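I have a small job for you when you get a moment. Can you supply me with one protein entry, sequence and fold together? It will help me judge whether the discrete encoding reads sensibly. Write everything out right here, beneath this request:
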Amino acid sequence: MKYLVTGGAGYVGSVVAAHLLEAGHEVTVLDDLSTGFREGVPAGASFIEGRIQDAARHLDGTYDGVLHFAASSQVGESVADPEKYWRNNVGGTMDLLAAMRAAGVRRLVFSSTAATYGEPAVTPITEDLPTAPTSPYGASKLAVDHMISGECTAHGLAAVSLRYFNVAGAYGGCGERHDPESHLVPLVLQVAQGRRESIAVYGDDYPTPDGTCVRDYIHVADLAEAHLLAVAAAEPGTHRICNLGNGNGFSVREVIETVRKVTGHAIPEVVAARRAGDPAILVASADRARTELGWTPSRTDLADIIRDAWRFARVESVRREGE
């Protein structure tokens, strides 16, 4: 099978592209490198530097499907610059869907987000809970989900949207390296590397066992395997939406303590004020993905997830020093 992976030079997209190649598929990565990295494109994949708005130039009937990761994805930035998120995430996907329709490419897996749920009143989060995003980022992803549903009904698209929260770990030469970095695991690892003096803990008075926020962490390789199952399970005229997660949450302090154990480094922490809109607990139920996609995460141990991320962080540090 031949697939186009938009955003395949980024963290999750590159790992999914690598898994597709390992499964024997032909892969083309389309990425404008605004947040991705050319060296992140796995060996064996064809690469096109370009925007999803220009997908019509590159898609043709030889492709069997698209796995769509290209998006702006910073919550804080989306609040300050919402028009960027409507333009890139919504407008860009609209152009991509039109290109797929014109080329006769009728299979799509969309990298959505559990941010579409906002601050749910219950946990674990299931797909039938109301969607109430609290940021333009989450709202843009929800708008795309609605757009995809319409495309499936009107034009017979076979599509699966996968919603997840915190992705961590690394796979092969692909790992997490955002600029600027905003995710907890790589930020704590930067402290272990001496690149950052301390880690901020935003609130230690939440109604959780240790007072810090609890989140669901999923290994990026488990996530990639779910995408391969999803593209195989997509059915014409149907838009399936599945959450992905371990079903177990880890607190901020549990993550920090696990990094201490894995790296052998002291991790100074500084308690800061709560961030607006940070719910105490966000954990996803992945029962639907297990039932409908046949997906079961196998890398659920937090120490193993962090160990893989730490291995990549050290390799990446050597690479940066050599530039």
